[in-house]
Amino acid sequence: MMMTDERVVFGNTFHGLFQIALHGRLSQAARYALGRMGLHVDRQPLPFYPASVWRPSIEIIVRDLFPELHREEAYRRLGQKMVTEVSETVLGRGMLALGRALGPRRLLMRMNHNFRNADNYVQMQLKELAPTAYEVHINETLGIPSYYQGIIEAALGASGAREPHVHHVRAEGSGCTYRVEWH
Known about the structure:
This protein is an alpha+beta fold. 50% of the residues lie in helices and 19% in strands.
């Protein structure tokens, strides 16, 4: 795979999405389309993939899994699925227990670290508005801010936040700012 994009998504992220969260759920047509991009869902993932491959792979997935949904809702659901399905693994259950022990506030403060383990370009900044309300800025969403919205919602829910709400506040170039609240 030729590297023309310095931004990369690490192989563990592809493993989590394709081999855990989506294992056995993709149609043959989607698997073929992903394979043409160099993403063979049944093989050991490469150490990293260009970010330019990540975005179209997400599009293939949402068209396959959620064809009846509006694209933004499909991206949000995929983000949620990534968190909830990975939390069903042994490692995921450990991470879930840690998230519950940390609680929503501290988990949110740790999420930048989690994003940094997924790729080399996403950075998250927090601004506390109240003990259960934050402004969250993600510098790069690759044009799919609803995917990150779903990840944040599911992670907060898994950490024990009651009624987590994540709303787009504004787009800023390729980044997005969200208002995050829970009870």
